[in-house]
Amino acid sequence: MSKENISFVDVLKEKIMSGFYPSILVVDKYPWITPTIIGRLAEELGIDLFVILTSQHVVQSVEQSLQHIKEDVEDLGAIILPDYVFGQSLVKDNVFDTAFTLNNVFSKISDQVEKIVVDLSGSDGAIAATTVYSVKKILGDKAVFTVVDTIPLYGIPAYPGSPRWLHKVYVYGDADIRKKGSIVDDYPKNIEWRGSRGIYIAISKLFNTLTRCGFIETYHNSRRYMPGENSKLEAWIETIGALGEKRRLLMIEELKGPDQNTSNMLYNAWKQISELLDMTIGDKDKQSIDRLVMQIQRYVGAADLIIKESASSSPQWFDHEGEKLHRIILRSTGERNKLAVVPDTNLFYQGLHMVLLKASIRQGSPWSTLRNISVYIPRCAETEINGKVAETNPDAGGLQRVSYIMALLANRALLETKYYYDAKTLSATAQPCEASMAVEAPNLPEHRILLITADHKAFTAWQTLNVCRGKVACAYIGHSDKPLDTDTIYGRFYASIASSILLYVSSLFLPVTVKGSSGEARLIVKNLKGSSAPIVSVHRIRNDEKL
User: For residue 5, is pLDDT > 60?
Assistant: First the structure.
């Protein structure tokens, strides 16, 4: 063994002899999930020594990913000990070389170890099997194996920037559980606009602060032990002032995460917001309130956008009627000819950014550009949205304030489309925007062009102007009448994002209270002006403040 590896083993032995509870993380395939594994094992088992054995191919990614959790782990008094800081990765390309190396390491610590946890979440099948063989041969019953539920997609925020309910811990063997409690002992005091990803991270940390640990399943001596009591996380929206009315927006099982009930509540949440706004706004124009607020359903991603009608000289587009927009975009990522997607102004109010997010998740890398897809933002659409923000007084009350908030959110969705999906500008400047789009879009270099609008009048105008022919197809966009699917971990992940954005957006209109098994917090809009607006303040509610 090299001098560097001897030093690594010596340090490892010294930490074990000092009373640290060790875990071995074997990482050769999914380096970005390393912080999630560390955070969850620290919470559920009380691990305070994380020994990371890496392949040379993942060292840089592991090193970068650990920055997300290093401070939280150190606050618990835990230590992270990667092999690469001693000069060499111990996981080799050849599985037998790996087996010999691991045998050597485990043999040298065998006498000091009483119990050791070996996690296989970040390794592929061959290395995982090699690790199990080596551990069982050298350490025997001293070893316990774990797997942490993760979604192996690059770009998913690491825990605690993702809800605990997505990261169940499975334990195979008789673990020595020394719970130290949640690594999330704080929550964001202010949530600024940082795109849907930033909101998801901030609200996830709040969720994890307000809920308990205990999402762990064990298997030992042919017996299976399931998680304990499943509490519910609830969110309520309430009126301002003396009315004292409130409505439940959302309910999520703390251990299971979003289910079909959550999905149904997400789908109908805009109605609760509209009802309370109607009580709050003096002019009592319920139809106008509904017309503005119902867009929240699509904006937060609670309902999938679908193609309701299409117009094209190519028959294939008529087969897409009734199909979800993100699936059409996703299918186009694998086709030979590039697709240009050109949205009308209303799509930025209606959740185009969530369509692109869902397509990017299915592509395998959330919040990233889509292969073979070009998104174009008409300059007239950007001008129209920005003009609405500029001309409306955010300090006004009533419908004017509601209208301003929706325009500001549309602006933020437009910016997200640029930032995450590399949207370009279409030089369509004149109003009405749909007419300008009809002139400029056919000149785009892509072989296929899709004009989309949620305004049937604009869709009809495109057909009348004879633009929906040749390489240009036009689509009238509606929304699905079915709530989100939450049957898979990917579905629960997306529903978790939609839930996070719903709470953020709802709090811009009226106060939102979120209550879990470990606490309660209130979200209230703080600022609707400035580059980081909207800003939502988060206030932890003490027992003496509860009604």
Answer: no
Q: Quick: pLDDT tens for 110-152.
A: 998 889 999 999 998 899 999 999 999 999 999 999 999 999 8
Over the stretch 152-188, which tens digit does the pLDDT of each residue have?
Answer: 898 899 999 999 999 999 999 887 777 666 666 678 8
Element (H, E) at 4: helix 3-17
- Segment 327-342 mean pLDDT: 93
Q: What is the pLDDT of residues 271-306, one digit of tens each?
A: 999 999 988 886 667 888 999 999 999 999 999 999
Residue 181: which region, alpha, beta or left (left: phi > 0; alpha: psi -120 to 50)? left
Residue type, 226: M
Give the Å distances, CA to CA, from 235 to 161, 210, 246, 266, 465.
19, 12, 10, 11, 48
pLDDT number for residue 183: 66
How far apart CA 384 and CA 387 sit, in angstroms, is 5
Q: What is the pLDDT of residues 176-185, one digit of tens each?
A: 777 666 666 6
- Contact of 166 with 489, CB cutoff 8 Å: yes
Query: Cα 375 to the chain's mean position, in Å?
Result: 22
pLDDT value at residue 192: 95
ω into 163 cis (within 30 of 0):
no
> Where do the H-state alpha helices sit in 146-259?
195-210
Strand-strand pairing, 190-191 and 535-540:
antiparallel
Q: 321: which residues sit within 8 A by CB, 6+ positions away?
A: 307, 308, 309, 310
Residues whose CB falls within 8 Å of the CB of residue 367, separated by 6 or more in sequence, listed in order: 155, 195, 196, 197, 357, 360, 420
User: Alpha-carbon torsion 487, 489, 494, 498, what sign?
Assistant: positive
pLDDT at 181: 61
Long-range contact list for 484-490, CB < 8 A, 24+ apart? 484/258, 484/263, 484/266, 484/267, 484/301, 484/302, 484/303, 484/304, 485/263, 486/257, 486/258, 486/259, 486/260, 486/262, 486/263, 489/149, 489/151, 489/166, 490/151, 490/361
Mutual angle of helices 433-440 and 379-391, in 10-degree steps = 160
Specify whether the CB–CB gap between 449 and 442 falls below 8 A. Answer: yes
Both tokens of 367, joined, read: 């919040």
Q: Which of 413, 432, 415 is nearest to 295 (CA)?
A: 413
Question: Is the omega angle on the peptide bond into residue 445 within 30 degrees of 0, that is, cis?
Answer: no
Q: In a 3-state reduction of DSSP, which class is residue 405?
A: helix
- Domains of the chain, earliest start first: 18-150 (3.40.50.10770), 232-299+484-541 (no CATH), 304-479 (3.40.50.1010)
**Sheet of strand 143-148, all strands in order from the earlier edge strand to the far edge:** 79-82, 49-54, 22-27, 116-119, 143-148, 169-172, 216-220, 223-225
% of residues, the chain, pLDDT over 70: 95
**Amino acid letter, residue 76:** L
- How far apart CA 25 and CA 90 sit, in angstroms, is 12
pTM of the model: 0.93
Strand residue runs (E) in 78-141:
79-82, 116-119
| Mean pLDDT of the chain, nearest integer | 91
Helix (H), strand (E), coil (C) string for 450-466: EEEECCHHHHHHHHHCC
